[in-house]
Amino acid sequence: MRNRFTRRAALAALLAVIGAGCSPGERQVEQTIERELPRLVGPAQSYAVDVEGLQGTRGAERVTVTGRRVQPEGAPVLDQVVVTLRGVRYNAARRELEAVESANLFARLLATDLSTYLDTRPGLSAVAVRLEPPDAAGVRARPELGQIAVPAGATVETSGRLVARGPRVAYEVAEVRAAGVPLPAVAARRLSEAINPVVDLSALPLALQVTEVRMEGAAILLRAVGRYQR
To answer: Which end of the chain is flanked by fewer CB atoms within 10 Å, N or C?
Structure first.
């Protein structure tokens, strides 16, 4: 009787997986990647994983991951992230992701989330980011500029552009003004040090390199490529 019950339970579990549209092997790959995603990309409000070209217990040809409200280490909250992993290899016995031949990441960063992130930086407060497509941006803040004379309570405004620099996105400050008056170059340098990097993906195991930064409405769109080897 016990063996019969065990067989029925196993069959029920198998039918549940098939009913959900996944083979047992495919679901195992999905679960393995879902478990690794907080480490590979960052904690998220939610993740969805789609596996294509399952290769038995060796891996998969392609895995597409969609994340909502993702928080990578060293970066603002990313409103949406889509990562395409190709040549995925995993260890079925240990249930570990072993390697990814190539990774392509697309991320959508809202200006409001960037403002919130920069507002936590030492020396910055009351930060507001203004986007000017295709790659220009303005940052308004109340910074600490040391010995540089700034009218009491005045808001400092900068103009510049966002650029890709390896695994990071940097803000190149072109001009700094306070109460409409241009400030010296040393002010731009100190603000740049306080703001940058805007996004830093260097700590992620995917070894990402940012290839494109552009703006669309109130969002910054990022593209990056990388790979993974445990």
So the answer is: N
> In a 10 Å sphere around its CB, with 0-12 CB exposed, 13-18 middle and 19+ buried, how is residue 191 labelled?
buried
Beta bridge partners, 97, equal: 90
- 56-100 tens-digit pLDDT: 767 889 999 999 999 998 899 999 999 999 999 988 778 788 899
Reported pTM: 0.82
Tracing tokens 């030492």 back to the chain, one arrives at 122
Q: Residue written as tokens 């400092």? A: 156
CB-based burial, 86-117: b 16+ in 10 Å, e otherwise: bbbbbeeeeeebeebeebbbbbbbbbebbbeb
**Residue with token string 């549940």:** 16
